[in-house]
Amino acid sequence: MPYKILFVCLGNICRSPSAENIMNHLIEEAGLNWQIICDSAGTSSYHVGCSPDRRMTSALINRGFRVNGEARQFEYSDFEEFDLILAMDKENYQNILSLDRQQIYGDKVKLMCDFAQNYATKEVPDPYYGGQKGFENVIDLLIDSCQGLLMYVKNQLKLN
Ligand code: 4NP
């Protein structure tokens, strides 16, 4: 059974699809496509069915990443479906946990920046209403966090 990771933000059009695509890039490089599977979702339904944000997509393509995906909303069954659920910021984290009324799945839910190694930032900032620099910052943070995350998952899977 592959290890399944779900990245979650608010709209599922900027941060979490970026995390998913960056992580998939690292997974492919490591030859672990069959061992680790990624998906993403939003806590809101604002952009369900939409492609990733155009500004985010062009920033990612300029940095050599492919960008796939269509926005969907986080749903209760995701708690069971995924091994690890990564919130981009603390609001996402709280919104996810608030859906776990029986408090069964808390251990699966973590902040993306918990895996960052070179940044002290605790959250991936929402770039939606900012400028181009915000999107670049998201990519930098996510590359760093995804590298740490890959090491963590390899450890969990005893692949080192
Ligand atoms: P995301 O960014 O949560 O990283 O996908 C946002 C996308 C849309 C909105 C806010 C943040 N919005 O308010 O529509």
Structural description of this entry:
By secondary structure, the protein is an alpha/beta fold. It is 39% helix and 13% strand. It is built from five helices and four strands, in the order βαβααβαβα. The protein has helices at 15-29, 54-62, 78-81, 90-98, 132-156; strands at 3-9, 36-42, 84-87, 109-111. A four-stranded parallel β-sheet has the order 2-1-3-4. α1 links the parallel β1 (3-9) and β2 (36-42). α1 (15-29) crosses α5. The mean pLDDT is 97. Bound molecules: 4-nitrophenyl phosphate. 4-nitrophenyl phosphate is lined by residues 9-15, 46, 126, 128.
Give the tags.
about 160 residues, alpha/beta, four-stranded parallel beta sheet, 5 helices, about 40% helix, about 15% strand, binds 4-nitrophenyl phosphate
Compact overview of the structure:
This protein is α/β, with parallel strands linked by helices and 160 residues long.
Strand content: 5-15%
User: Can you give the helix content as a percent range?
Assistant: 25-40%
Tally of contiguous helical segments: 5
Largest sheet: 4 strands, parallel
Strand and helix order: EHEHHEHEH
State the secondary-structure class.
Answer: alpha/beta
Using the alpha-carbon principal axes, give the shape.
Answer: globular
Mean of pLDDT: 97
Compute the CA-based radius of gyration. 14 Å
Tell me the strand order in the biggest sheet.
2-1-3-4
Through-space gap between termini: 18 Å
Number of strands: 4
Low-confidence stretches: none
> What molecules are bound to this protein?
4-nitrophenyl phosphate
